[in-house]
Automatic annotation (TrEMBL):
Record keyword Transport present: yes
SUPFAM superfamilies, per the entry: 4Fe-4S ferredoxins
Gene3D superfamilies the UniProt entry points to: 3.30.70.20
Keyword Mitochondrion recorded: no
Top-level taxonomic group: Bacteria
InterPro entries hit by this protein: Fe-S_cluster_ET
Protein name: Ferredoxin
Record GO terms (molecular function): iron-sulfur cluster binding; metal ion binding
Keywords of this entry: Electron transport, Iron, Iron-sulfur, Metal-binding, Transport
């Protein structure tokens, strides 16, 4: 499973970081980074929570 970020929508408010810090990081320049390319199954619940929590609707999931 891969995470797709709509970079036009993301405002780097780090809501997703709080939901899944293993996967998302916002740097000092307020830029979002994905820390994993392929989401391992054990992190899937956290990532799904982050997708639901994003107030900008900027995250979606892509199955291979
Ligand atoms: S929660 Fe959404 S808007 Fe906020 S940093 Fe994450 S992807 Fe961007």
């Amino acid at each position: 499973m891969k995470i797709v970020v709509n970079w036009e929508r993301c405002e780097a408010n780090a809501v997703c970081v709080r939901a899944a810090p293993e996967v998302f990081r916002v740097d000092d320049d307020d830029r979002l980074h994905l820390l994993v390319d392929d989401v391992p199954s054990e992190l899937r619940p956290k990532v799904e929570k982050a997708v639901r929590a994003c107030p900008r609707g900027a995250l979606s999931l892509e199955e291979p």
